[in-house]
Design a protein that fits this description.
With 365 residues, the chain is of the alpha/beta class. It has helices at 11-21, 45-50, 62-68, 127-140, 155-169, 192-204, 291-309, 346-362, and strands spanning 2-7, 28-34, 38-40, 59-61, 72-75, 78-82, 87-90, 95-97, 100-103, 108-109, 121-123, 145-151, 174-180, 207-210, 214-217, 220-223, 228-229, 233-236, 240-241, 259-261, 273-275, 280-282, 325-328, 334-338, 341-345. It folds into two domains: 2-35 and 76-107 and 242-309, FAD/NAD(P)-binding domain; 109-239, FAD/NAD(P)-binding domain. It is globular. The two termini are 27 Å apart. The structure holds flavin-adenine dinucleotide.
C-alpha cells in the first residue's frame, strides 16, 4: 500500500481531502500534517477583526475533514524534509516516510528590516497567532489614544487597516491609524480607478497613507526620508516569504526560496512531490500568490495526485488572466475589482459575505 502525505491544510488541500473522501477504494494510506486542527480562512479575517464575524465563523475543521476522508491527522508542523530520501520531519523529532507528497503550507510574512520592533510587531501570518495577539492588544490597551501602523499596502494591508479602524472606533480607544505603502503605493497591482476608490476609503476613515519605505531601528520605526514614527503597534502585511527549512529540503526552489513547479504543480526536481498555493512558484507562468489561485488549483491537483497514483496523464492548471477580488472596507462596504471593472457599495460586501460563507459551508463536516 502506498503512503500519500499531505503537508499543510491550505486552500488546495481542502479540495484534495474532499476528493479523496470519494476515493476510499484506492490502495492508499493518507496522512495530513498541520500545526493546528483548524484552518483560518483569510478572506474572512478582516471581517473577524472588524467584529462582523465570530472567530469560529471563519474556521475550517481540518481534523474532522481528515476523519471524514479516512485520513490520519497529525497536529504538528513540518520542520524539515529530505526529498531524496522521501521523508518529512515533524517538530517532535519523528520522521514520516512517503511515496507521494503534496505541500500546501502557504507562506510567512516577509518582515525583513522590522524584527527589532520585537513586542510591538505583529505579523499577519500565521493567521491564528495574529488573531490571538490582536485580541490581546484590544484587551490590554489601557491608553485612550494609540497609534497603529500597518506596513504593506497590498489588498491585505488595505483591508486590515480599515478593519482595525472600524473595530477601534467601536471601543473607547482613540486610534491614529497609518498605512505605509512603500514606493509602489496603495494596492499597486490594481487599476487606477480601484486605487482612487481605495484612497477615498482611507480618507473617509481618517487613515493616513504614506508612500514610503519603513524599517526599524533601536528607537522604533524610521521612514525612508529619515523621519522617526511612533507606533504602539505595528502590523506587517508585507508580502510572502518562504519557510526557511525548504532551503535544506533538496527540492528545486525559485530565487525567493519557493518550491519550483511545472504546469501540473509537480516539483521540477522530484516528480513524486506536488505543491499548491503560496508555497510554490510556477516555472512557466507568473502565478500571483493569492487564495483564489490556491482554491482554483486545488481540484486539479487533487485529480493529479490520484492520476499519479494510477499512472494516468496529469492535467495542467492554467491561472486566469483576471481573478475576482472583493476588498472589504472595514464597515459592511466593499470594492469589487475584476479586470478593468471596478465598483463599490454595501451590496458588494453582502456578495463577499455570501461567497465567503458558501466557501466555509463547503468544508463544514
Ligand atoms: C488579511 C488577508 C486577506 C486576504 N484576502 C484574500 C482574498 O480575499 N482573496 C485572495 O485570493 N487572497 C487573499 N489573501 C491571500 C491568501 O491568504 C493567501 O494567498 C492564501 O492563504 C494562500 O493559501 P495557501 O493554501 O497557499 O496557504 P494557507 O491558506 O496559508 O494555508 C497553509 C496551511 O499550512 C499550515 N502550515 C504552515 N506551515 C506548516 C508546516 N511547516 N507544516 C505543516 N503545515 C504548515 C498552516 O497552518 C495553514 O493551515 C489574503 C491574505 C490576508 C493576510
Amino acid at each position: 500500500m502506498k503512503h500519500l502525505v499531505l503537508v499543510g491544510g491550505g486552500h488546495g488541500h481542502l479540495f484534495v481531502l474532499k476528493e479523496l473522501a470519494k476515493k476510499s477504494h484506492l490502495p492508499l494510506s493518507i496522512t495530513l500534517i498541520n500545526p493546528n486542527s483548524v484552518q483560518a480562512y483569510s478572506g474572512m479575517l478582516p471581517g473577524v477583526m472588524a467584529g462582523h464575524y465570530s472567530h469560529a465563523e471563519h474556521l475550517i475543521d481540518l481534523a474532522a475533514l481528515a476523519r471524514k476522508a479516512g485520513v490520519e491527522f497529525i497536529c504538528q508542523p513540518i520542520v524539515g524534509m529530505d526529498a531524496n530520501k522521501r521523508y518529512v520531519c515533524l517538530s517532535d523529532g519523528n520522521y514520516i516516510h512517503y511515496d507521494l507528497l503534496s505541500i500546501n503550507i502557504g507562506s510567512e510574512t516577509q518582515c525583513k528590516g522590522l524584527t527589532s520592533l520585537n513586542n510591538t510587531l505583529l505579523t499577519i501570518k500565521p493567521l491564528l497567532d495574529f488573531q490571538r495577539q490582536w485580541n490581546l492588544f484590544l484587551e490590554t490597551t489601557k491608553t485612550k489614544t494609540c497609534t497603529l501602523v500597518v506596513i504593506g499596502a497590498g489588498p491585505a494591508g488595505f483591508e486590515i487597516a480599515l478593519a482595525a479602524s472600524y473595530r477601534l472606533n467601536s471601543t473607547n480607544i482613540t486610534a491614529d491609524i497609518i498605512l505605509i505603502g512603500g514606493n509602489t503605493g496603495l494596492i499597486s497591482n490594481f487599476t487606477e480607478k480601484a486605487r482612487a476608490m481605495a484612497h477615498q476609503q482611507l480618507q473617509q476613515n481618517n487613515i493616513k497613507f504614506i508612500a514610503m519605505h519603513a524599517v526599524s531601528d533601536h528607537h522604533g520605526l524610521v521612514l525612508s526620508n529619515g523621519q522617526q514614527l511612533h507606533a504602539d503597534l505595528v502590523i506587517a502585511t508585507t508580502g510572502a516569504r518562504a519557510q526557511t527549512w525548504l532551503t535544506h529540503s533538496q527540492l528545486a526552489l525559485d530565487s525567493n526560496g519557493f518550491i519550483a513547479v511545472d504546469a501540473f504543480h509537480r516539483s521540477l526536481s522530484h516528480h513524486t512531490i506536488f505543491a499548491i498555493g503560496d508555497v510554490c512558484a510556477r516555472s512557466d507562468v507568473h502565478l500571483v500568490k493569492s487564495g483564489v489561485n490556491a482554491v482554483r488549483a486545488g481540484p486539479i491537483i487533487a485529480r493529479n495526485i490520484i492520476a499519479a497514483l494510477e499512472d494516468k496523464p496529469l492535467k495542467k492548471f492554467m491561472p486566469k488572466k483576471n481573478n475576482l477580488y472583493i476588498l472589504a472596507c472595514g464597515r459592511r462596504y466593499a470594492i469589487l475589482c475584476w479586470g478593468t471593472l471596478c465598483i463599490q457599495g454595501t451590496w458588494l460586501w453582502r456578495l463577499k459575505n455570501y461567497i465567503d460563507k458558501k466557501f466555509i459551508r463547503k468544508f463544514s463536516v
